[in-house]
Amino acid sequence: MPLADGAPLSRAPAADPAGEAPVLEVDRLEVVFDTRGGAVHAINGVSFSVRPGELLGVVGESGSGKSVTMMSALDLLPSPPARRTGGAIRYQGRDVSSMGPKALRKLRGGDIGFVFQDPMTSLNPVFTVGYQICEPLRAHLGLSRKQARKRAAELLAMVGIPSPEARLDDYPHQFSGGMRQRVMVAIALSCEPRVIIADEPTTALDVTIQAQILDLVRDLRHRTGAAIVWVTHDLGVIAGIADRVAVMYAGQIVEEAPVAAIFAGPRHPYAAALLETIPDVEGERPERLTTIPGQPPILRAPPAACAFAPRCAHAFDRCHAQNPPLADDGTGHKAACWLRPETVAAAEAGEGAR
Amino acid sequence: MLTYTIRRLAFAVPTLLVISFLIFGILDLAPSDPTAQLPLTIPPEVREKIRLSLGLGDPFIVRYFKWLVQFMVNEPLNILEQWTGWTIGDGERLRVLSWQTRSPVVDLIVQRMPQTLWVVGMSYVVGIVIAIPIGVISAYRQYSWFDQFGTLFSMVGFSIPTFFTGLLFIVIFSVTLGWLPSIYDTTLVVEDWDSFVAQVKQMIMPTMVLGLYNASQLSRFMRASVLDNLNQDYVRTARAKGMTEKVVLLIHVLRNSMIPVVTVIALNLPQVFGGAIITEQIFRVNGLGQLLIGAIEGGDIPTVQTLTFIFAVLIVVFNLIADVLYGILDPRIRYD
């Protein structure tokens, strides 16, 4: 797929909740891991926000920092080795890092629900599913044992588990992978969160179960109006459900746009390359699947140049000398690439301001 | 679970029969003479008559079956009679007799059991109570000063033998400070506050010596198990649900971490009944360990045979208990 030269959008975004204030904002987040081999700069100034009812897809290769960003947002990374070195996370305008442990706990599971990648290991094997759903209900909503149980059964019914009342007393190993992920979704939804962060929730599942979970999330979003951040490395999944897409590479967002715009015309060579890697359903079957040559870098220092330049077919001198800022072309389509006029303009404006 | 337990118990019967035969065979092969400790002035013909009167004239197989009948049939019937007051048959059954004392071995064991259970059993309780918190905190604060100290404590506790710590305790607390008695007085009867205090005082040293040894071992197991579980995904889920660290650690992690540790504890429990031979010797605790040592020294084959066989039964039973506990603690394991 060629790079589009600022072509007009072929379609308007599916939903446009632009008027509302963002419910979750991540502002120039920086995370460093202190490893035995030295510091690794995993996240280098990631900013994004989601508004109520919006579904933001975050894509990127393994190791691009998608999961780390999301975990860091709720302070779930083990520290050491992880260390937040800069930036802020705001929930409804309040800074998360300045919250006390009690307020942070209220946020986790209460206002922000989290669904993890691997449903096989994310549930505690020695407690019943009912107990694990009831825990946040009792802690955050102060429900009694009986009320929590009733609500837990409703939640299981909502995520499509048959005979929910009876299954509350079952242990996680008595559920299949897809069913366990539904339980995880039920836990994430239990306290009616304003934001749901789903960290590769369908990666460990087979395709038919994936489709069921996607349907479920699409449905729940319309019903509850929660904002959703959906992390994945599967662009096909994103195309089906997201309103906006952010493409991550080496701990930075390199392109962010409404979903239709990015599929019609990706502007960052990395986003374009990612789209290239999706195998075509029609036409002749290729000998080999398309890949992006090379590996994402392990950053010992914050990137001084474009981190994708070594793997980029379009790279020129400036790419190896200066890190491009993420810039908006005025239509809500942002890219961080020296080939883009808006990036060049933003860099000049930034230098002028300094 | 019940069918499983019954099946395991049924399997235990042939296992124990083989074990009893092996013990009997090994003891028979050992060059021990029950008359060796008698005065040298006794002439050889008399010694031979003593041996014959102890039943040593019979062939090996006959002696084995006699012991088997005495231990497996006569002794249980005898215990049943004592408990219920019934009379079964004519009540004239041959019991397993000690060669040294000529009294029934089972009666000797019943006499010695309380001391051993109190001292060694209490040392196990002390060990568990010390080890579990140390293991949990060491793992939760890995590489902290507490963890470093805990590691040092368990390394020292594990590598110094109990006969050394026992003597060290005696030198410090009995000889130098004079706080605690160095000899365990079995005849002490607890009937008022003073005798209770005396009992506690004489139990402290043997219990602590064994308890610290057990704790150093268990705390390592506990630490490893908690560390293993702290890295599991479900811990992250619990935190993401907004659970307090207390709930995460003491409910989610602890329950999972206890699974292997409970198994270790259950498997080690037969040792409590076996008595800590060395510790009992040092503190003169008149328990099962001392009974066994005395019987070995005196060539008292029936006592050694019976005690060893009882230990074997306990090991088989506690193995089963460990497996059943495993199934209760971990819902993923079902035996049916």
From TrEMBL, chain A:
<dbReference type="Pfam" id="PF00005">
    <property type="entry name" value="ABC_tran"/>
</dbReference>
<dbReference type="InterPro" id="IPR003439">
    <property type="entry name" value="ABC_transporter-like_ATP-bd"/>
</dbReference>
<keyword id="KW-0472">Membrane</keyword>
<dbReference type="GO" id="GO:0015833">
    <property type="term" value="P:peptide transport"/>
</dbReference>
<dbReference type="GO" id="GO:0016887">
    <property type="term" value="F:ATP hydrolysis activity"/>
</dbReference>
<keyword id="KW-0813">Transport</keyword>
<dbReference type="InterPro" id="IPR017871">
    <property type="entry name" value="ABC_transporter-like_CS"/>
</dbReference>
<dbReference type="GO" id="GO:0055085">
    <property type="term" value="P:transmembrane transport"/>
</dbReference>
<keyword id="KW-1003">Cell membrane</keyword>
<dbReference type="GO" id="GO:0005524">
    <property type="term" value="F:ATP binding"/>
</dbReference>
<dbReference type="GO" id="GO:0005886">
    <property type="term" value="C:plasma membrane"/>
</dbReference>
<comment type="similarity">
    <text>Belongs to the ABC transporter superfamily.</text>
</comment>
<dbReference type="InterPro" id="IPR013563">
    <property type="entry name" value="Oligopep_ABC_C"/>
</dbReference>
<dbReference type="InterPro" id="IPR027417">
    <property type="entry name" value="P-loop_NTPase"/>
</dbReference>
<keyword id="KW-0547">Nucleotide-binding</keyword>
<dbReference type="Pfam" id="PF08352">
    <property type="entry name" value="oligo_HPY"/>
</dbReference>
<feature type="domain" description="ABC transporter">
    <location>
        <begin position="27"/>
        <end position="275"/>
    </location>
</feature>
<dbReference type="InterPro" id="IPR003593">
    <property type="entry name" value="AAA+_ATPase"/>
</dbReference>
<dbReference type="InterPro" id="IPR050388">
    <property type="entry name" value="ABC_Ni/Peptide_Import"/>
</dbReference>
<protein>
    <submittedName>
        <fullName>Peptide/nickel transport system ATP-binding protein/oligopeptide transport system ATP-binding protein</fullName>
    </submittedName>
</protein>
<keyword id="KW-0067">ATP-binding</keyword>
UniProtKB/TrEMBL annotation, chain B:
<dbReference type="InterPro" id="IPR045621">
    <property type="entry name" value="BPD_transp_1_N"/>
</dbReference>
<feature type="transmembrane region" description="Helical">
    <location>
        <begin position="247"/>
        <end position="267"/>
    </location>
</feature>
<dbReference type="GO" id="GO:0005886">
    <property type="term" value="C:plasma membrane"/>
</dbReference>
<feature type="transmembrane region" description="Helical">
    <location>
        <begin position="307"/>
        <end position="329"/>
    </location>
</feature>
<dbReference type="InterPro" id="IPR035906">
    <property type="entry name" value="MetI-like_sf"/>
</dbReference>
<protein>
    <submittedName>
        <fullName>Peptide/nickel transport system permease protein</fullName>
    </submittedName>
</protein>
<keyword id="KW-1133">Transmembrane helix</keyword>
<feature type="transmembrane region" description="Helical">
    <location>
        <begin position="152"/>
        <end position="176"/>
    </location>
</feature>
<dbReference type="Pfam" id="PF19300">
    <property type="entry name" value="BPD_transp_1_N"/>
</dbReference>
<keyword id="KW-0472">Membrane</keyword>
<keyword id="KW-0812">Transmembrane</keyword>
<dbReference type="GO" id="GO:0055085">
    <property type="term" value="P:transmembrane transport"/>
</dbReference>
<comment type="similarity">
    <text>Belongs to the binding-protein-dependent transport system permease family.</text>
</comment>
<feature type="transmembrane region" description="Helical">
    <location>
        <begin position="117"/>
        <end position="140"/>
    </location>
</feature>
<dbReference type="InterPro" id="IPR000515">
    <property type="entry name" value="MetI-like"/>
</dbReference>
<feature type="transmembrane region" description="Helical">
    <location>
        <begin position="196"/>
        <end position="215"/>
    </location>
</feature>
<keyword id="KW-1003">Cell membrane</keyword>
<dbReference type="Pfam" id="PF00528">
    <property type="entry name" value="BPD_transp_1"/>
</dbReference>
<feature type="domain" description="ABC transmembrane type-1">
    <location>
        <begin position="113"/>
        <end position="322"/>
    </location>
</feature>
<feature type="transmembrane region" description="Helical">
    <location>
        <begin position="9"/>
        <end position="30"/>
    </location>
</feature>
<keyword id="KW-0813">Transport</keyword>
